[in-house]
Design brief:
Rossmann fold, 12% strand, 4 strands, alpha/beta
């Protein structure tokens, strides 16, 4: 599966219930953008996890406010270790998702860490947003084994939060309740 805006699946055309802020509750997949600073590890892993675990309910993308230009090899190793495809991932700017023809984003999750003093990007428009900050495994210092274990821990944190997202019955939650659930997921 291609992991770029140009490879996006189109949304089915059908009548839907639209909440007050514009989320098409009945139209799937819902487009999700994972944002961090470098788009080399955390957001890439989150994109891979959601695309692999959500069936047709969600379509994940990732981007960074200051992309590094390359995906961290340890992120790809962790994705591979989880049995997920590693093809097509690239470090890219969030500007790609603001261009004409880019997918309409329904959810934005920032995964950068406040604790590390990183500046987390903000997304314009009216998607549902939540901060799911995790430590940056790309900046972890240690032996190769320690780095691999740290990447595995961060992957596990992201996977747990994404599991919460995919378990939610979007059609049964209003925007406020959904926001609360997603904010709570960011604390797990």
């Amino acid at each position: 599966m291609k992991n770029s805006p140009t490879g996006a699946r189109s949304r089915p055309k059908k009548t839907s219930d639209r909440d007050k802020e514009g989320l098409d509750i009945d139209v799937e997949p819902h487009n999700v953008l994972f944002l961090c600073t470098g788009n080399s590890a955390r957001s890439i892993m989150a994109e891979a996890i959601l695309n692999a675990t959500s069936g047709d309910r969600f379509r994940a993308y990732s981007a960074g406010s200051h992309p590094t230009g390359k995906v961290n090899p340890l992120a790809l190793a962790q994705i591979r270790k989880a049995g997920l495809p590693t093809e097509g991932y690239r470090s890219k700017s969030w500007d790609e998702f603001a261009r004409p023809g880019a997918p309409k984003i329904d959810f934005v999750f920032t995964v950068c860490s406040d604790a590390a003093g990183e500046v987390c990007p903000m997304w314009p428009g009216h998607p549902i947003t939540a901060h799911w900050g995790v430590d940056d495994p790309a900046s972890f210092k240690g032996t190769d084994d320690e780095k691999a274990r740290f990447f595995s821990r961060i992957y596990g944190q992201l996977h747990a939060r994404i599991r919460i997202l995919t378990s939610l019955s979007l059609d049964k939650l209003d925007r406020t309740a959904l926001q609360r659930k997603l904010d709570e997921a960011g604390q797990t």
